[in-house]
Amino acid sequence: MNIIDMRMHMNFGDATNAFWNAKDSNDATYNVTYVDSHDFGPNKSSVRYAGGTDAWAENMSPMWTFRGVPTLHYGSEVEFQAGKPIDCGPTCPLATTGRAYFGDHLAGSVTAADYGVVSSASGAVAATLEKPLVKHVQRLNQIRRRRCRRASTPPRASAAAWRSSAATPAVRWTASRWSRSPARRRSRASPTAPTATWSPVTRRSSPAAR
Description:
The structure is a single chain. By secondary structure, the chain is α+β, with helices and mostly antiparallel strands. The protein has a domain at 6-151. Helix content is 28%, strand content 8%. It contains six helices and four strands, in the order H-H-E-H-E-E-E-H-H-H. It has helices at residues 6-10, 15-22, 53-65, 124-128, 132-152, 182-188, and strands at residues 32-33, 69-70, 109-114, 117-122. The strands form two sheets. A two-stranded parallel sheet has the order 1-2. Strands 3-4 form a two-stranded antiparallel sheet. Strand 1, helix 3 and strand 2 (69-70) form a beta-alpha-beta unit. Helix 3 (53-65) packs parallel to helix 5.
């Protein structure tokens, strides 16, 4: 129970069951939570989860807002190979299983405007990013990130002090990475999206932060 949340996974045939079966677990802030994987679907199903778009969205919501580390098996955000056998060994082509190649859905380029915000995309990945579950995951990531940022903001600094530059999307800072030295702030900057263009954060001065 301290690595993979099997109780939650096994009950993800229904989001309500998954929540009630896992809510009394230990404080598993680092447990991996997931619906399906390269081995099993919920309840040791041998096929990739095929509960439908609405059920997938219902499953994702507690995964991203509950304790633990949400994990999404590749392609599940577009219901890739839903209902297909996860693995059948050498008895069938890999392309007919849940382990089929997914890279074709990711071909192209993406430019990120901010965390979880796509400003432009081209190629097959543009169509992938328009899928309803992809947009749902983007929104859940933003919600989860805001919650983590609130938890890490130092008491003496207002939330407004931890904002990006209005002119250019920028790296968001956490309390543990803050430094009063502008040079150190620049050197510690790391982009949230590799293809985006980022600039250092300009911290707004406030009496509480001086």
